[in-house]
Amino acid sequence: MVALAVAVWPRGDEATEQPQSPPAASGVSDDLRAAAHLPDCPGGAATGSGPLAGITLDCLANGRPVDLAAALAGKPALLNLWAYWCAPCAQELPYLQQYAQRAGNAITVLTVHSDPDEAKALSRLRGLEVRLPGVSDADARVRTAVGAPAVLPISVLVRADGSVADVVVRAFGGVDDIANTVAGKLGVAA
């Protein structure tokens, strides 16, 4: 009984104690997110459709939930599924960044990290100096929704109406490869 009283007895001046904020649900610190310098994920008030409707994922930039179909609604998109441990993904991500810069606002380019370890994803992007918006998909919900095989990298080309134009199951070999593939499947010139 004495041990219990000692264990629960208040210590020090409680008025000077600072409240501690709970750790983020993902375990990723705000500092690590900030160090990656990622842009915020696209957002939209529109209701999205297609196979991505109903999928909510966390934005890598800030950990906030993103309704994927709503975020992509109204504009063609290239979703790139990758993981921090995937060597072909690491070669392809800088090409995607260059393509996104070249294409401008004509298309949304969004990375989809397909592994539960967000911290390693953020570190990998930082090391590659890739600054694309991205979401975390630890449960492979995007891959499952579009019927893609369990390999990486995969790029999903989504039409403005939310339907899937193509699932590209290979690494892109360069910016022109991405531009030609997107132009052929989505009609977006870059």
Strand content: 15-25%
Enumerate the strands of the largest sheet in spatial order, edge to edge or round the barrel: 2-1-5-4-3-6-7
Helix content: 25-40%
Rough outline: globular
CATH superfamily: Glutaredoxin
Q: Low-confidence parts, pLDDT < 50 over ≥5 residues?
A: 1-24
Identify the CATH class: Alpha Beta
What is the radius of gyration?
20 Å
Number of strands: 7
Multimer state: single chain
Q: Please give the domain count.
A: 1
Euclidean distance between termini CA atoms? 74 Å
Region (Disordered): 10-29
Pfam family, one: Redoxin
Keywords: Cytochrome c-type biogenesis, Disulfide bond, Redox-active center, Signal-anchor, Transmembrane
InterPro entries: Redoxin (IPR013740), Thioredoxin-like_sf (IPR036249), Thioredoxin_CS (IPR017937), Thioredoxin_domain (IPR013766), Thioredoxin_ResA/DsbE_sf (IPR050553)
How would you describe this protein?
- The chain has one domain: Glutaredoxin, CATH 3.40.30.
- The chain contains seven helices and seven strands.
- Strands 2-1-5-4-3-6-7 form a seven-stranded mixed sheet.
- α2 runs parallel beside α5.
- The N terminus is likely disordered.
Chain-wise SSE layout:
Layout: H1 2-8, H2 30-36, E1 56-59, E2 65-67, H3 68-72, E3 77-82, H4 87-103, E4 108-113, H5 118-128, E5 134-136, H6 141-146, E6 154-158, E7 164-168, H7 175-186
Parallel strand pairs: 3-4, 4-5
Antiparallel strand pairs: 1-2, 1-5, 3-6, 6-7
